[in-house]
Amino acid sequence: MADFPKILSENWDVENSHTLEVYESHGGYVALKKVLTGDKITPEALREEVKTSGLRGRGGAGFPTGVKWGFVPQNIDKPKYLLVNADESEPGTFKDRFIMDYDPHMMIEGSILSSYAINANDCFIYIRGEYGWLVDRLEEAIEEAYAKGYLGKNILGSGFDCEMIVHKGAGAYICGEETGLINSLEGLKGQPRIKPPFPAVVGFLDCPTIVNNVETVASVPWIVNNGANAYAAIGTEKSTGTKLFSVSGPVKRPGVYEIPLGLPMKELLMGNDYCQGMKDGVELKACIPGGSSVPILNAEETLACNVDYESFAEHGTMLGSGGCIVVGNDANMPELLKNLIQFYHHESCGQCTPCREGTGWLDMILERMLNGEGRPKDLELLDRIGNNMMGTTICVLADAAVMPCQSFIKKFRDEFEALLPDMEEPEDYIPTTSSAELPR
Amino acid sequence: MAKITIDGIEHEFEEGKNLFEACAEANGEKLPHFCYHPGLSIAGVCRMCQVEIEGVPKLVIACNATVRDGMVVHTKNDRVKSTVKNILNFHLLHHPVDCPVCDQAGECSLQDFYMNHGLYDADIDIDDKLAKGKVKPIGELVMLDAERCVLCARCTRFTREVTKTDELGIFHRGNHSEIDVAPGKTLDNNYSLNTVDICPVGALTSRDFRFRKRVWWLETTDSVCPGCSTGCNMTIHHNEGTAYRFKPRENMDVNEYWMCDHGRLLYKDIMTDARQTAPTVGKGDARTDGSWERAYARVLEMAEGKTLAFVGSPHATLEELFALGRLCEVAGGKWIGARLASTEVGEADDLLFSADRTPNGEGLRRLKAGEFSLDELRSAATGDHVLVVLENDLVGLSDSGVLDGFAGVIAIAADANATTEAADVVLPTLKYAEKSGTWINKNGRAQALAPAFVGPAEARDALRIASELAETFGHTFTWTDAAAVLTEIAGTVDGFGALAAGIGPQGVSLDGTPDAPAPSGGEEAQA
To answer: Strand, coil or helix: what is B113?
Structure first.
């Protein structure tokens, strides 16, 4: 195991790690004091520091955080907002809940620092409704922070104000998409907004808004304390720092692991410090490395990858949210795919036609295939529908449905073909709505 | 200005102009689209107007893009065509294709785009189509068919952004999404039929127009709404002498794209049972239909030894009021006025509906044709006066005895009413849909009427009646039609000079300034 500092998970197994007392005794709020009162780092300098660190958004897109902060126009007379995206709903992803459960103050300190960096005085934590108990935990922690003067007016006498509000979502996947989140927070239907304008310029209440993932903001205090260069020294050139990976599936020790980026997948899945290999009697068949929306890897590809943005891209997939779903050889790929597509069908917000109709259509075809009613050209049809959905919609939910669909079929085609009837579809096969079959 | 290449041809547009509009101007036709509407916010959901912009990896929707200098845009290459075709396929996937029984057929965007971009066989079996609600009345005037809906969200944006009444919403998610009225609401605002206009498909249809006429039989004539002093520009849709519906006609200086339901349903009042179809002579039981000659002869008899007194109307055209005034002059008559003060007013709303419920109140004000009080009318009602009243139901607007004092009453009217009932002679005339003429809206915009169809055979244009009455009294008017009268008004009456060059389809401001009662973004809306 490579020697690296645990940035996010260091205190998870400390008793009462969620309390302010324990957090402070492990160096908590030192970064905030350093920025606001000690070194008096300017927001601009903080943005620069995070840019230098190479920290990338941990929610899935992997966009450089400091660069994103830089998009906020600082010369306009409007309030700015930081929205912390705690709507962790990508299937296979369960890392942010660990931060919020075991180290909520780390996220709170990071959120205050991030708010400061973009000159925001209001910060909202948008948390998925299913994380009900975490709302209480966060609110307790926020209360502690207010009592200690880390939140509220004139924090630590610095003149900087920051209010923090936890807002519970109602359980829609699409509200984790940043503009869907903004709509939901405004009380509107959770549907992504058309871009441009981008939220950094016109976001929450039409004001400049940054939406950052929980893990992203939680990484900021460490960067402040240890310096951007120390952070950048971990990982690879383009994938710096550490990342939480939530591993599920038939491995011996599933769970959430903090790893230095660049770690071989083989090490994550098979290494003694991590998952310790597949369960007895199960062989690795495939792996969805970054949350259900990314293309699947077969066993060979899985073991050849390193856990970083570049290596995954080379292998045709993405690091995403770090929701690593391991698939054993006992899994039925069409059934697995049906499960995923059903999810996207259910969660499509319905505004863009290709996604609204496409996700349902994919689901319908998979359903009939699994019911033994597949048609000879169904695989071609699935592929064609996917091609027409990709990149044609406001947000990437359509793409997120298509990537597993197409990659599953490409890599495990024989399992899908086995569901189709043997016969060749006649050249002139026409569905029954065609005028050719209507009475004349 | 920005230079931009669209489909290989260079154009110049203002930097920042909406790319959808720029492409429409450049190509002479709009890109395929369902959700884009210039009077509403950008939804960007139908995904039909995708174009390729060189240097941008993904196709972009033109409606949410803006013109930039040097942009090279392709709207018709294979990549774009194939994408549009496939997205149209998504739109049609669960569509019931019930065109034969759909009122929208013939003016349906789905049909039009299918002819241009589709023409493929269905990819889905009929049994696999999702069934949704059909024939659901969602308001007094609007019927919803959720199966035909393409969820373009025009109607929901209209009720949110224009009327701000929010009756409509899109409920559920994904392919279960459906337009519907919000719980406990009905779509009964005075602008509800605009949702039918902007619905690109047959999801929202007019309960008034449904199944009354296939749209391809309808002819259209540009006109102006008679319902209030806003003067919304509209089109009369008619067939064989009957109007079937009014639709708003775009005029950014007047009504933008909209029209109220009140005005829109006035088509029903054109041909009514009350229509005066022939001249009549005599009152009560003694009344008989007569020829025009007999009627004019009776007028001459009545006028013998009396002074003619004249009343015009805020419903009459500018030309008619002018001609009646001229008749008054040549006959040495007494001009009472053109409008009984404080009548035909109601409550205004924030959008288009004005308090003055007449179309030409401003016209008579500017012609100085004048308003008069009931007392003034009563004091004119003497045995010395024979009243000539044009299109003005004085009795209906005041009380039954108001005309009793006159020595006689000659009514020029299109419909029988309480005033024609009290008249000794009734001369049947034409309505706004049957004649040429001009109305001045409340902001001083002159707008033209054109005949959509002919009126009742015996009815005559009020201009002609004025000329013929003048002849009866031994005078000849030189003009023979409304255009000539208008030219004379422009040349001789102060404040009408702007009309010398004629009135185009969008009207002419008499004050030379654009007026702006715009529903969205206008002064009233902002206030």
So the answer is: helix
Residue A328 near chain B (CB below 8 Å): no
Residue owning tokens 């174009």: B51
| pLDDT score, position B126 | 85
pTM listed for this prediction: 0.92
**Nearest-CA neighbor of B156 among B141, B175, B138?**
B138
Summarised one tens digit per residue, pLDDT across range B324-348 is 999 999 999 999 999 999 999 999 9
| Averaged confidence pLDDT in chain B | 94
Decide if B231 contacts B263 (C-beta within 8 A).
no
Sheet holding B425-428, edge to edge: B288-289, B280-281, B425-428, B408-413, B385-390, B307-311, B334-337
Model confidence at B284, pLDDT cuts 50, 70, 90, reads: confident
- Type of residue found at B409: V
- Please check whether residues A278 and A375 belong to one and the same domain: no
Are B359 and B229 in contact by the 8 Å Cβ rule? The answer is: yes
Question: Measured between CB atoms, does B472 come within 8 Å of chain A?
Answer: no
Q: Which one of A361, A384, A432 has the shortest CB-CB distance to B126? A: A432
CATH fold of B127-269 reads Alpha-Beta Plaits (3.30.70)
CATH (one of 3.40.50.2300, 3.20.20.140, 1.10.510.10, 3.10.20.740) for B2-92: 3.10.20.740
Extract the runs of DSSP E, i.e. beta strands, from A270-344.
Answer: 284-288, 297-298, 306-307, 323-328
Contacts of A70 (CB under 8 A, 6+ apart): A47, A51
Burial of B193 (0-12, 13-18, 19+ CB in 10 A): buried
> What is the least distance, in Å, from the CA of B124 to any CA of chain A?
6
Out of A232, A263, A292, pick the residue that ends a domain: A232
User: Cα dist. A249→A272, A278, B226, B401 in Å?
Assistant: 17, 9, 72, 94
Domain boundaries, position A378: 333-417
Provide the shortest C-alpha distance from residue A398 to chain B (in Å).
11
Helix orientation angle between B462-472 and B318-330, rounded to the nearest 10 degrees: 10
Q: What is the DSSP letter of A435?
A: G
Kindly state the percentage of chain A with pLDDT values over 70: 95
> Do B121 and A354 make contact, defined as CB atoms within 8 angstroms?
no
Distance from C-alpha of A62 to C-alpha of B442, rounded to nearest angstrom: 59
Confirm if A243 and A322 have CB atoms less than 8 A apart.
Answer: yes
Which 3 state secondary structure label does DSSP give B150? coil
pLDDT digits (tens, 9 = 90+) for A79-89: 999 999 999 99
Q: CA angle, corner B320, sides to B314 and B321, nearest 5?
A: 55
Asked if the C-beta of A377 comes within 8 angstroms of chain B's C-beta atoms, the answer is: no
Tokens of A80: 């700015």
